[in-house]
Amino acid sequence: MKSPATQVLPDTRRRRTSTSEKIQAVMSLAKQLPLTRLVLADQLTHATLSQIEFTSDWMHAEIESRERSKRSRLLKQAGFSQSKELDGYDWTPVKFPVDYGRQALQALDFIRNAEDLVFYGPPGTGKTHLAIALGRNACRQGIPVKFHTAASLVMRLQHAQTDGKLDRELTLIGKAQLLIIDELGYIPIDEQGSRLIFQAITNAYETQSIIYTTNIESGGWGRIFGDQNMAAALIDRTVHHGRMTGFENDSYKRTHALMQ
Fold it and tell me: Which string of DSSP letters, residue by residue, matches 19-53?
């Protein structure tokens, strides 16, 4: 005659096998259809309290998983040149407008209001760092962002135009709620490039927020675009829904350089 212990082991294995099979069956069903709230509501009316709590925990876990995936996807799609964050950022060089400060900037309300920001100052004062850090925080809040240097944006638009895909490229750029154009004015832009970047910026007017980082004051933007009228139109749009933030002091790279 078999001992009780010998009888328990096969029963335990059968239960585990049965549970595993049921889990696999549920996973297969989950791949076939999204949840229908009416069906879910009907099932919940017959559920026990523990079953309802389990369903609630499951829903929260699913939502959190999707949010993590979305944040990760947005950070990857943004195209940031570096991984910069606000933690440890040196705000000393930043000179805010009278009516706008650090707290308002970090709240990212300028994105929700489709306002523009111009970060103006000499190279190495933290303009790009701050722009990227704000962009990464926006991605973590589920806000689509696109980062380009002015030169790379022009090149991208020129290639798209050559390939007959300019409208598609402009549409992709337009899907971002925040467009960061870095190093505006560092490299001259030819006439064709100026018109292309002007088109992207014009499309963003009152629908997207733009952060420009530049070492040229707005009065000198005519030199960047080679067209005073075009520059004046961009400045007019930026002034209408934007603010300029100055960056001063010595270059961070220079003051922290190994070669002094």
Answer: HHHHHHHHHHHHHH----HHHHHHHHTT--HHHHH
Q: pTM for the whole thing?
A: 0.79
User: Quick count: other Cβ atoms within 10 Å of Cβ 196?
Assistant: 23
Residue ranges covered by each domain of the chain: 4-72, 94-255
Residue 247 CA, distance from chain mean position: 23
169 Cβ contact list (under 8 Å, min separation 6): 156, 157, 160
Summarised one tens digit per residue, pLDDT across range 198-247 is 999 999 988 999 999 999 887 778 777 777 788 788 888 787 788 999 99
C-alpha to C-alpha distances, 70 to 114, 138, 171, 209, nearest whole angstrom: 22, 12, 20, 20
Q: Where are the alpha helices (DSSP H) in 124-187?
A: 127-140, 150-162, 166-174
| Sign of the four-CA dihedral 168, 171, 173, 175 | negative
3-state secondary structure of 256: coil
Q: What is the pLDDT of residues 123-172, one digit of tens each?
A: 989 999 999 999 999 999 999 999 999 999 999 999 999 999 999 999 99
Q: How many CA atoms lie within 13 A of 242 on its CB side?
A: 23
pLDDT, averaged across the chain:
85
Residues 251/123, Cβ–Cβ less than 8 Å: yes
Starting at the edge strand found earlier in the chain, the sheet holding 94-95 runs 94-95, 242-247, 116-120, 209-214, 178-184, 145-149
Assign domain 94-255 to its CATH superfamily: P-loop containing nucleotide triphosphate hydrolases (3.40.50.300)
